[in-house]
Structure formats: structure tokens, C-alpha cells
Amino acid sequence: MDSLARTVAAVGLPHPIAVDVAREAIASGRWEDATEIGRERARSLLVPVVNATGVLLHTNLGRAPLPVRGSPPQPIRATNLELDLSTGRRGSRNDRAGALAARACGAQAALVVNNGAAAVLLVLAALASGRDVVVSRGELVEIGGGFRIPDVLASSGARMVEVGTTNRTRRADYEAALAGRDVAAVVKVHQSNFKMAGFVESVGTRDLASLGVPVVVDLGSGLLDANTPWLKGPPPKWLAGEPAAVQTLAEGAALVTFSGDKLLGGPQAGIIAGRAELVAACARHPLARALRPGGLVLDALQSTLLSYLGGSGADIPFWRMATTPLDALAERAKAIGVGSIVSCKSVPGAGSLPGLELDSVGVAIEGDHLATLRGFDPPVIARAYDGMTVADLRSVDPSDDAIVAKALGAASRSAGPA
Ligand SMILES: *Cc1c(COP(=O)(O)O)cnc(C)c1O
């Protein structure tokens, strides 16, 4: 048993897990396969993969890829997470990423929590528990993964007051709902993952802000500023109409909430930004402690926000991928030198900017080789359609092109001569 476990551990598993694997192998009468089972177990851990799907923010692949600092990456050291270096006293973990987020949004204050869903829950619990919250019937949406606005509202302890209809909600609908009620906030939810067209009408933030109650806007997708000052040149045309934190706050929203790992391009996090006293009420609420992010997330978010504030969008992988010109992709495809060069379409992903396709360039080989590519070390995740396997280079970091070349080469060779 012990020697079997030691053999299994040689595939790179810690001893206790190798022991579990050895036990399992013996129990199932497959002790000769123990090393193979161990390899499978090691492969089932979090490992880096190459995203060649063309979905820039792929939820199954962790949404926004994080920038790696230093090469080789620096070891993780202790940080001053909750230490004020100037006084030597206890500080707040929200002081850096939270303050930077506020600065980047043009907000008085901001608070960082675990994800966008947590941000919405905390805001509603802190501002509206036991009180009324007004929301348009056109915005009672499901984001995915069971996150439905009416359910989140209910679990926050707020009472939902629905106004308008699925396709049309007017200012008068909100006014009628406010009359004679104890309304804590009007909540506006960005229809971030679907589109309504035709006979539709909704009320903008500026108009809602004049109703006399705080307006909370759940932006979800997390575009920071519609003017994209972190990019060279004008904002990409495909961002037109996507609401942004800076502009939504300038239009009078009391608070905005959004994800850290959608269009913001940072780690999984949720950001609450806006009026100082409302952000402080969120931070004081007992749920804030349960929803707080870890030091690794705050460190990564700090890097992302510093890139924004420094105007260096090219340091944020999402923006780098989304804005790479077609000829640069074509050159990379040529350099890969395997299969054929094809035009393809990338999508932002993570439910953001629904319907948007970005022209892209891929490398294609004949047949469906997805399973072989997933089995490559490191795994390469591609797409198969029209009888070919396509690696979309827009979602691949250029430093991974060599891996894509090797994996596609190996896959086409293993398929044998056509
Ligand atoms: C994605 C999204 C959320 C949830 O954010 P997560 O970071 O996935 O928890 C909430 N609201 C809207 C409008 C969204 O698009």
C-alpha cells in the first residue's frame, strides 16, 4: 500500500492524496492502474489551459485571464493586507483596491466583494432590508447559474415592487409606485446577457435619479468608462450603447455594482461604487464580512485598476485580446505554420455584449480533434465546426502560439494521413 502510494505520488500528487488514489485503486481491483488514476487526479486539479475557443471571457475557463507578473511568476509573499504601514496599526483590506476602484469610477467610495452577485445582495440587504425596492418588469432578469433578480431581492429581505411591463416601463410607472410607499431604492438592472428589440421603452438613469430616492444600477458587465481612456484611439465601435460605471454615476446613480472579471478584465470580484455613506452602510453590514474577497483577489484587482488608472489597457488581457488588429492575428497564424488559416468570429463571452461578434483569425485542421487537444499538456481548448477544428488566435496569448502549433501538429499527425 505504502509503496503503491509512493509510486503514485511520483506523478506530482501530495502524499495523502496519493494514498487515497492507491486505496481507491486497490478497492476497485485496479491496482496496476494506480499511477494512471493518479495522473487523472493530477489533471483534474486547476491547471493552466490555452483558450483557443475565441470566447474571450469563457466562463468555463475562468472568464477574464489574469496578467502574470514577472517571468517566472513571483512567489506569493506576505502582504500588508490589513496593516497600515505608516502607523503600524490595523488597516482595512478595502483601502487599496476599494479606493482605486472609487478613483477609476469617479465615485466617492467603493467596496470590493466576492463577485457581482454578492455586490447586488449586499447593497439590497444594507439599504433596503424590510423596505420596498422598485424595479421594472423588463429588468427582472436571470443572469445565469440561478441568479435571478427577484430571488436575490427576496433573500436580501427587501420587498420587491414591480412596475411597468416586460417591454415598456415609463417614468409615470415609477412615480405611481413611489407614492405612499417606504421605498429604499429604485433598482435598475442592465440587460447584459440578452437583447429586447421592437416596441420597447425604459427609463434612463438620469431620469430615475430625479425621482428623489437612491438609484442603484446593477451594470453587471463592468465597463469602467465609455470613453475607454486606457485604449489608444477612440472607443471601439462595438462598445456603443454598453452602460459604463463612470457615466452611470455621473448621470446620478447613487450606487453601481459590477463584476471584476467581465469587461473589467480583472479577477472574480464584485464592486460597489458610489456615494460614500451608502458604501459605508454596505461595509458595516454583517454580510460584508461573509462576502469579503481574499488577499490574492485584492492584489490582482489592484494590478488591474492600476493598469486602468495608468492608461495601459494593453496590460489587461481582455482589452489586449479584444483590440488586437486582424493583420496581427493573421501574421501569428502564418507563423504557426500548421493547418490552414481561416477567418472566424470571436465573442466577448461571460454573457457580455450579447450578439456581438469580433472578426478573428484562426488556424484550422481537418476533422474533430477537440478531445486530443484537451488531452495535450497543457490542454488546448478549441472549437469544431464545418468538419474542422479551429484554434481562434484572438483568445490565445501570443506567448502560447508555440503550444497551439505543437498541439495542432500532434493532433493532425495522430489522425494519420487523410
Ligand atoms: C454577471 C452579472 C451579475 C453577476 O455577476 P457575477 O460576477 O457573475 O456574480 C449580476 N448582474 C448582472 C446584470 C450581470 O450581468
In short:
This protein is α/β, with parallel strands linked by helices. It contains 16 helices and 16 strands. The chain has a seven-stranded mixed β-sheet, sandwiched between helices. The protein has a five-stranded mixed β-sheet with strand order 2-12-13-16-15.
Q: Oligomeric status of the shown chains?
A: single chain
- Mean pLDDT, to the nearest integer, reads 93
The low-pLDDT segments are none
Q: Ions, cofactors, ligands: which are bound?
A: pyridoxal-5'-phosphate
End-to-end distance: 47 Å
Q: Classify the helix fraction into a percent range.
A: 25-40%
Dominant shape: globular
**Order of neighbouring strands in the sheet with most strands:** 3-11-10-9-8-4-7
**Count of extended strands:** 16
- Determine the strand fraction and express it as a percent band: 15-25%
Number of helices: 16
Largest sheet: 7 strands, mixed
Question: Structural class, from helix and strand content?
Answer: alpha/beta
Cα gyration radius (Å): 24 Å
Notes on the protein architecture:
- This protein is an alpha/beta fold.
- It is 35% helix and 18% strand.
- The chain has helices at 2-9, 15-27, 34-43, 97-105, 116-128, 149-155, 171-178, 205-209, 245-250, 276-284, 286-290, 295-309, 317-323, 326-336, 370-374, 401-414; strands at residues 50-51, 55-57, 109-113, 132-136, 142-144, 147-148, 159-163, 183-189, 215-220, 255-259, 270-274, 340-349, 358-366, 380-381, 383-385, 388-392.
- The strands form four sheets. Strands 3-11-10-9-8-4-7 form a seven-stranded mixed β-sheet, sandwiched between helices. It has a five-stranded mixed β-sheet with strand order 2-12-13-16-15.
- α1 (2-9) packs across α2 (15-27).
- The longest helix is centred in the C-terminal third of the chain and has 15 residues, at 295-309.
- The chain starts with a helix and ends with a helix.
- 41% of the residues are buried.
- The structure holds pyridoxal-5'-phosphate.
- The site of pyridoxal-5'-phosphate has 16 residues, from α5 and β9.
